[in-house]
Amino acid sequence: MRQILADCSASISELKKNPTALLNAADGAAIAILNHNTPAAYLVPAETYEWLMDMLDDYELGNLVDSRRGDLSEAVEVSLDDL
């Protein structure tokens, strides 16, 4: 059985009946959408999804910086006066 990673859950039937009521009841939290008591999807508010995408972008940029910082063989030295 898969772990449910949300405090709120609803069946697909409940989602079809009244999605707005589910969102209001969750009060901004993610909702696990269950199919036969197994998570089939997660319904996440738009603001939360946008925040997650920003965090993922920041994480990927951090990894890029770390990888480039490790390879200093191609680095070019400059002075601040030259900039």
Distance between the termini: 59 Å
**How much strand?**
15-25%
The count of domains is 1
Alpha-beta classification: alpha+beta
What is the β-strand count?
3
Q: Which percent range fits the helix content?
A: 40-55%
Low-confidence stretches: none
Query: Mean pLDDT across all residues, rounded?
Result: 92
Query: From the 3D coordinates, which CATH architecture would you assign?
Result: 3-Layer(aba) Sandwich
> Which fold does the CATH topology refer to?
YefM-like fold
**Overall shape:** elongated
Question: Would you give an account of this structure?
Answer:
- The protein has 83 residues and is an alpha+beta fold.
- The protein has one domain (8-71): YefM-like fold (3-Layer(aba) Sandwich).
- 47% of the residues lie in helices and 18% in strands.
- The chain contains 3 helices and 3 strands; from the N terminus they run βααββα.
- A hairpin with a 2-residue loop joins strand 2 (31-35) and strand 3 (38-43).
- The radius of gyration is 22 Å and the shape is elongated.
- The termini are far apart.
Quickly describe the structure.
This protein has helices spanning 12-17, 19-26, 46-70, and strands spanning 8-11, 31-35, 38-43. With 83 residues, it is α+β, with helices and mostly antiparallel strands. A three-stranded mixed beta sheet has the order 1-2-3.
